[in-house]
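User: Teach me something about this protein's shape.
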Amino acid sequence: ASSFVVKDGLLRVEGPSGWLRSAREYRNFVLRTQVRMLTPDADSGIFVRAVGANIFMRGWPGDSYQVQVRVPTAPGPLPPIGGIFRHGTPPGQTALDIDAVRKSFTALNEWQRLEITLSGTTLAATLNGVEVTRAEGLVDRPGYIGIQAETGVLEYRSIEIRQLP
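Assistant: First, the predicted structure itself:
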């Protein structure tokens, strides 16, 4: 069975592996989407600037950046929604404001507005209008955008990408 199903205009993501990739590559852009986490263990991600030439685990693209889409109250060491993973890319500075995430996240089963702005070597993520993450030192190159399937159940709607110069 697929980890991704589209029904009634919603993209339902129900793990355990793989990613749904854009048809073309993007370099500088603003991505706006709404995501609803339906289970307490909901964990997904949005890959950006993913080269996709190699796989690091469970069908996910190595040589990529991932903006975490995970319930802020889920237990464990992984960052909540807005956190950044650098998969096979050089290290850089990341400032994740956990308090801002907890304050701006409304609740399970409610739509959250997530916006990712990627320009040059900088990435910023906002949750419900509040900046929660700023990452520096990203490799400035084009790559694919993709939705990750990992754990639990989530839905995405209204995924919009606007290219920046």
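Now, about its shape. Residues 98-104 form the longest helix (7 residues). The helical segments are 98-104. If you'd like, I can walk through any region in more detail.
User: That's plenty for now, thanks!
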